[in-house]
Design goal:
The chain is α/β, with parallel strands linked by helices and 410 residues long. The chain is 23% helix and 27% strand. The chain starts with a strand and ends in a 7-residue tail after the last strand. Bound molecules: S-adenosylmethionine. S-adenosylmethionine is lined by residues 239, 241, 268-270, 273-274, 288-290, 293, 316-318, 336-338.
Length: 410
């Protein structure tokens, strides 16, 4: 096949380099000259002719094959700036600019939530991340992303695969490192019949709670998390910010954006990451679509001394957003929707004219769309705080402060 030489102009949303065409070239950086065979719109095995000054040696030996990381070949400074630029580009598409604060990046080996895959092999079992653009599971001798406690569980998960995976199935392990050990929810396994149910409790000294296809196997010690002074027992598979450092950075930004608020609503509240510590300063109404998360949040609030009143509501905020008249009693709102954003709820917020809004987002595109609805209604976008808790991946997260002009010194 003929070799083509290309210059990389920018990185795409998946972290691949993009040359004019467009041609997607993985593991490259802007400004680099690369050579190789182009198939369709991809050059999958580039030779780096002229490396970027931002290129570094990837610290992990699995980087080239494992799909867990896409940007380990770039310096920390490059990744931090690129993630901020992704947000700026999304805002610019709506004619918006904002003060961008420096990206706050979580340390290596700090991910406390991860999903690993497992499969039976001729020799036994294999658990790891999927390969880059492939179904193959990569065997890991080290991992620079997940917490050491999660990495150390891999041999245990391989034993579980041997017991509970059918020959061709891929098991999925959703892992959360909590204060009382590892919470593990398994999906894709054999039916939980009598022998499997009897065999699985042998892992109870390594896994605090084991859930199989949504069914509890055992939970001797309830998994426990702390949000500010409040202890919460999350249900299996509960949403949790990916790193403790990321959660701290997001909470610091949210609490700064809502400073001075005396009645707060937390929309898409999960099990209380923001609502519960905010309730040390002001009464909070937490709204969330998942009943089990709401129950965990409320239970935590009821058993914590010294909190201001916490009320909760289970509500689908896509179908039934809080209406402007319901929002009128709040002077601060935090809104942290899933990737789709919260267009309907943001339209209602814009009408309600709540004084301070903290937006948290894992998708700059929907964030920018929703932020534009607020700026069109007269809000000022005060600043954006990029938060990188998915180190070396192309994911971008952020918190932002918006307020009505008379509060814009906030
Ligand atoms: C990005 S998470 C944020 C959770 C929480 N703020 C935190 O930081 O832990 C988004 C939350 O929105 C909830 N959610 C998803 N769709 C929803 C909907 N239509 N209505 C209400 N909540 C929804 C999810 O259950 C999840 O808890």
């Amino acid at each position: 096949m003929t070799e083509t030489q290309l210059t990389i102009h920018r990185l795409g949303h998946q972290g691949d380099g993009i040359a004019p065409g467009p041609v997607f070239v993985p593991l490259t950086l802007p400004g680099e000259v690369v050579a190789g065979a182009v198939e369709g719109d991809r050059m999958d095995a580039p030779r780096i002719v002229t490396p970027s000054s931002d290129r570094v040696r990837a610290p992990c030996p699995h980087f080239k094959t494992c799909g867990g990381c896409a940007l380990m070949h770039a310096s920390d400074g490059f990744v931090a700036t690129w993630k901020a630029q992704v947000i700026e580009t999304a805002l610019a598409a709506h004619g918006l600019t904002a003060e961008m604060r420096p990206t706050l990046t979580s340390p290596a080996r700090s991910r406390r939530r991860a999903t690993l895959s497992g499969r039976r092999t001729k020799k036994g079992a294999l658990v790891g991340f999927h390969g880059r653009r492939s179904d193959v599971i990569v065997s890991l001798t080290e991992c620079h992303v997940i917490a050491p406690e999660l990495f150390a569980l891999i041999p245990v998960l391989e034993e579980i695969v041997k017991l509970g995976a059918s020959r061709s199935a891929t098991l999925s392990f959703a892992l959360t490192l909590t204060e009382t050990g590892i919470d593990c929810a398994v999906s894709g396994g054999k039916p939980l019949d009598g022998p499997l149910r009897a065999a699985l409790p042998r892992f109870r000294d390594r896994i605090t709670r084991l859930t199989w296809g949504g069914e509890p196997v055992y939970a001797d010690t309830a998994p426990r998390l702390s949000f500010g002074p409040v202890t919460v027992n999350p249900p299996p598979g509960a949403f949790l910010q990916a790193t403790a450092e990321g959660e701290g950075a997001l909470y610091a930004a949210v609490s700064e954006a809502l400073e001075g608020a005396t009645r707060i609503a937390d929309l898409f509240a999960g099990c209380g990451t923001f609502a519960l510590p905010l309730a040390t300063h002001a009464p909070v109404h937490a709204v969330e679509g998942d009943d089990a998360l709401v129950a965990a949040l409320l239970h935590g609030a009821r058993h914590a001394p010294g909190l201001r009143p916490v009320t909760t509501e289970t509500r689908d905020l896509f179908r039934r957003p809080l209406l402007p008249e319901e929002l009128a009693r709040f002077d601060g709102v935090v809104i942290d929707p899933p990737r789709a954003g919260a267009e309907a709820q943001t339209r209602a917020l814009a009408q309600a004219r709540v004084a301070r809004i903290a937006m948290v987002s894992c998708n700059p595109v929907t964030f920018a769309r929703d932020a534009a609805l607020l700026t069109q209604a007269g809000y000022r976008l005060n600043w954006v705080q990029p938060v990188d808790q998915f180190r070396w991946s192309p994911h971008v997260e952020l918190a932002a402060s918006l307020s009505l002009p008379h509060l814009s010194a906030n």
